[in-house]
Design brief:
The structure holds two protein chains of two kinds. Chain A is mostly helical. Chain A is built from eight helices and no strands. In chain A, α2 packs across α6 and α4 packs antiparallel against α5. The longest helix of chain B has 27 residues. Classes of the chains: A mainly alpha, B mainly alpha. Chains A and B meet through α5 and α7 of A and α1, α5, α6 and α7 of B.
């Protein structure tokens, strides 16, 4: 369930649901077909931590690994012009988030989650923009969902500084895809477990 | 970018904390502040928003789910900012100075701000508190380019304000609401930055957004409050 499952779904408009939420729900639905065991080893590993802020920060770190690698792979596709500039800048932001979160996880007394290897179904500028929009929208919804669960002011402040940048990434990529930069007046949220299951198809090891 | 130091990655959480207190955001946003404050109306706003009242609860492991006393001040502060944004877009749309995609964007963003106003008013009222009085506003509108630039300033300030206030919120419910608005303001800001030829993420290499504190934000919006 990689590229073949994403492309047709991205073309379907569903009333009252954002496209990214729909794609995510589709991925979740496919996962559910295989039962709970479909949550791969990476999901289980990411949740093997002590819980609390460390677990949430590690979850955030995994998403930033995924996004950084996504932009790195995209830049190998021969992007051009404004889209290439966006990908280059955004990759740098994701790396800064990785560095900050790695230190934060360590500071919380936990071990930073190891970077998995990723594979993304992107082959050109168009598929990069479409999937990038979905990944960034998902990242924003994931951070917003996890935010209130953080217990320390430092973790919340850091997560806030990151999620605002993710929201700006999402808006820019949406504009590049000729979509509304802010499709709703309020951001939806997604639970960590659902996010991890949804991104599992992009994780090779 | 003025704020382009890249120590964040190296110092992690410590750097995040320092950035949270960094006042370079004030310097940046103060550029937009003029000198035509309407002292009377503004003083009333300050009182309603509890400016200068720095009460912050001790870190509480069991965060309450419902709004606490201090949360209403923040809700009213956010409501005041949303009133400003809502009025701004209303005046922009009715000015007739925008057309095409810029007009559509102003209409859509204005609708979002109206929804934020409704939600925040309801949140304040449901807690048995009184919503801040809707301020009378004034904005210099001179044409599409200037308007989009002003819109970008207003939205970037709004996003910074929500980010600065988030850490002061005690209840999970209010925090969830604030976060769900914060990232929308950020999306607006990014779109308007792009529309005006600026970087969608104007924080240099840090990759981290810069918050603005309540007293600084209130000072910056003074020029938009009519007497």
């Amino acid at each position: 369930m990689t590229d073949r499952s994403l492309q047709p779904m991205s073309a379907i408009e569903v009333h009252g649901m954002t496209r990214s939420a729909f794609i995510l729900r589709g991925a979740l639905g496919a996962g559910a077909l295989y039962g709970a065991g479909a949550a791969g080893p990476f999901v289980r590993r990411a949740f093997a931590q002590e819980g609390g802020d460390a677990e949430i920060l590690n979850f955030a770190l995994m998403l930033q690994y995924l996004e950084e690698e996504f932009y790195s792979q995209a830049l190998g596709l021969g992007l051009a012009g404004d889209v290439k500039n966006l990908a280059t800048a955004f990759r740098g932001h994701e790396q800064a988030h990785i560095d900050a979160l790695t230190t934060a996880v360590t500071g919380a007394g936990a071990t930073p989650v190891k970077k998995p290897t990723f594979e993304f179904p992107i082959e050109d500028q168009g598929s990069f923009v479409t999937l990038g929009m979905t990944l960034e929208d998902t990242g924003v919804m994931a951070f917003n969902g996890a935010g209130p669960m953080l217990t320390t002011d430092e973790a919340l402040a850091g997560a806030g500084m990151i999620v605002q940048v993710e929201a700006r990434h999402a808006a820019a990529l949406r504009l590049a895809a000729m979509e509304e930069p802010a499709p709703n007046a309020f951001e939806e949220t997604i639970e960590m477990k659902d996010v991890l299951e949804a991104v599992e198809p992009f994780i090779k090891t | 970018m003025e704020h382009s130091q890249s120590e964040a990655g190296a110092a992690g959480a410590g750097a995040m904390q320092r950035l949270a207190r960094d006042d370079s955001s004030r310097k940046r946003f103060l550029k937009m502040a003029g000198t035509t404050a309407a002292a009377g109306a503004f003083a009333a706003l300050l009182a309603a928003c509890g400016e200068g009242d720095e009460e912050k609860a001790e870190v509480d492991d069991a965060a309450p789910s419902t709004a606490q006393a201090g949360d209403f001040k923040i809700l009213n502060y956010a409501l005041m900012l949303e009133y400003l944004e809502s009025d701004f877009y209303e005046k922009v749309v009715s000015s007739g100075m925008l057309s095409g995609a810029a007009l559509e964007m102003a209409k859509t963003f204005g609708e979002h701000e109206n929804e934020h106003v409704e939600t925040l008013e309801t949140a304040v009222k449901e807690g048995g508190e009184k919503p801040v009085a809707r301020p009378r506003t004034k904005f210099p509108l001179e044409g599409e380019e200037q308007i989009l630039g002003l819109a970008a300033q207003v939205e970037n300030l709004g996003a910074a304000a929500y980010l600065g206030a988030a850490g002061l919120i005690q209840s999970d419910d209010v925090l969830g609401t604030a976060l769900s608005i914060h990232s929308i303001e950020a999306r607006h800001a990014a779109a308007l930055n792009i529309a005006t030829g600026k970087e969608p993420v104007p924080f240099g290499d840090t990759g981290l957004a810069v918050p603005a504190e309540m007293d600084a934000v209130l000072e910056m919006v003074k020029p938009f409050i009519a007497s």
